[in-house]
Amino acid sequence: MVDHLAIGLAPPIAAVGALKGLGIVAATLAAAGTFALPLARDRAVAALVAVALTPALVLAELWRSDQVRHLRDHPDRAVAAAIIGVAIVAFLAALFRRRPQLVPFLAVLTLPVRLPIETGQTSANLLVPLYLVVAGGVVAYAADRLWRPSRHPGVVVGDGSGSPWRERPAGALELALLAFVVLYALESLYSSDFEQAVKNVAFFYVPFALLFKLLTTVRWTRRLVLQCSALAVALALLFVTIGFWEYASRQLLWNRKVIESNQFESYFRVNSLFFDPNIYGRFLAVVMVGVASTLLWARRRRDVLLAAGALAVLLAGLVLTFSQSSFAALLVGLAALAALRWDARRVGYAVAASLVAAGALVLAIHGSLHLGGHRSLNRSSSGRVKLVEGGLRMFADRPVWGFGSGSFAERYRAREKVGSPQAASASHTTPITVAAEQGLIGVLAYVAVVVAAFRRLFSGLGPLRGRDPPGRLVSRAFLAAGFAVLAFHTLLYAAFLEDPIAWTLLAVGAVLSDRLGPVPEPVTRAAPSAPTPAAPGDA
Predict the structure, then answer these.
(1) What one-character DSSP code corresponds to residue 127?
(2) Is the predicted pLDDT of residue 418 greater than 90, yes or no?
(3) Domain ranges in the chain?
(4) Over 60: is that where the pLDDT of 518 sits?
(5) What's the chain's average pLDDT?
(6) Cα–Cα distance between 155 and 361 in angstroms, integer?
(7) Which of 6, 32, 297, 420 sits between 20 and 30 A of 370, alpha carbons compared?
(8) Higher-scoring residue by pLDDT: 361, 501
(9) What is the C-alpha separation between 192 and 188, in angstroms, rounded?
């Protein structure tokens, strides 16, 4: 009887699986269409389709989970939650239609805000406020394009038509990002953990691709760049203050794993409002590179003192995370800034000499560091050596196409006979995770993204000698060095394109490196004697 029932249910189950597969591919193709389609109206429709498909994918995949079952059992609560969400998105869309410059400002404000939510058998820290900002921005952008569409098939629209949005042609960076996202969706079709792939697409790749679209379409001004930078520093100082309180009170706000580890270690790690101390440290490192760029090219003594004071406070906050990967990433970012400030060759020699000295020091104190063997090295790296080795073995078994997107944790636990679902979520080395899940095909797509990103961000940035370069070049130097921080951090930790900060740095860097650049500040007619606004290239 059971066998006959299973045989009878096989076709519907296969049909549902095929429908989910088509849905995840369609969502990524719709996100790609917001960049690649020739007509403004088509791009707007594609953006709306992507926004609508992502929550539908999550609901379809988690339909039998406890959280979704709770909503099914209480339809009144589900309807109320949907009404509240739609109302917030509609309010933000109306606000963004009148003031599109609020999109990047609110995006920066919500970038680090994560809410713990149960998804299936595990919990996830989701960027719900950022999702609402992206959805509101997409609706505002689509309404502008559908209400006032361009009559020309080209991708650059809005200039001279009274539209507050200005789209840019998709370059190598945009195409590489979209290719990686679409490939990820395609390789999820044979994944042994399709649910995790759906989560990554719906929670990260599609929303962040739409965020990238919004940030590269908004008309940036020099004032907007400064406001967003100041907001990021203010947020970092706020998080550091909370971290100081955690350290003084010996209490963490959340993350039971870190709370338990603090009880057995001789040190106390803080995570502020972040769930993970390493992600908290990454955020601080990126902001510190931005403050350091101000310090290096400061024009006034007051700016030097303020930047130095902020750096001291942020460094103290970073120390309390005990995040070795964040410290290493910060050094990489500072080296990139130094290469842009002075001579890159001399900075390279200094970095090489420092690495040689550090290696000699490690060899000299080898015994006291407890690095005597493979097991101690794995223990000192919190088990990352074993994760990396397992990922490399997975890649060796399927070197071309891998085990499927999102499958690393599930396949690793099965292969290594690890019972705990919390034991491994990634290899903590992004290229190895990509290689194990997506094979050589995915690695090539990942390398294309990294190469296109660095080429776009560092293009035209020679040594900025002197203390008075254009403000736009200083901002570009920070964005390039900040992305170097994040890219290096992902070599020692997880979350590359799963981090909205990566997409934000790339989007703003793409705008500032584009020949269109930011627009000049508006000049009021009531003040004809006011100074002439800065040219786009000087923003």
Answers:
(1) -
(2) no
(3) 24-172
(4) no
(5) 81
(6) 55
(7) 420
(8) 501
(9) 8
Distance CA 436, CA 445 (A): 14
Task: Give the distance from CA 131 to its chain's centroid.
Answer: 13
What pLDDT, on a 0 to 100 scale, did the predictor assign at position 175? 94
> How far apart are alpha carbons 204 and 407 in whole angstroms?
16
Does pLDDT of 467 surpass 80?
no
Assigned token pair, 363: 């060899």
Mean pLDDT in residue range 62-78:
70
Q: Name the pTM for this structure.
A: 0.85
Does the pLDDT at position 287 exceed 80?
A: yes
Query: Quick check: 168 and 155 in contact, CB under 8 A?
Result: yes
Q: What is the rounded CA–CA span in Å between residue 41 and residue 60?
A: 29
Predicted confidence (pLDDT) at residue 11 exceeds the cutoff of 70: no
Residue type, position 68, single letter: V
Contact 336, 484 (CB under 8 A): yes
Residue 34: which of 137, 233, 185, 178 has the closest Cα?
Answer: 178
More confident residue, 256 or 405: 405
| Residue 460 C-beta-side C-alpha neighbours within 13 Å | 13
Query: At a CB cut-off of 8 Å and minimum separation 6, what does 370 contact?
Result: 376, 380
Distances (CA, A) of 412 to 54, 161, 396, 422, 436: 27, 54, 13, 12, 10
Contact 191, 79 (CB under 8 A): no
Which amino acid is residue 216, in one-letter code?
A: T
Phi/psi of residue 459, each to 5°? -65, 125
Q: Please give the Cα distance from 437 to 188 (Å, whole number).
A: 9
Provide the Cα torsion 295, 299, 301, 304; round to 10°: -10
Closest CA to 150 of 163, 137, 138, 139: 163
Q: What are phi and psi of 150, to 5 degrees?
A: -75, 145
Tell me the C-alpha distance between 215 and 339, whole Å. 28
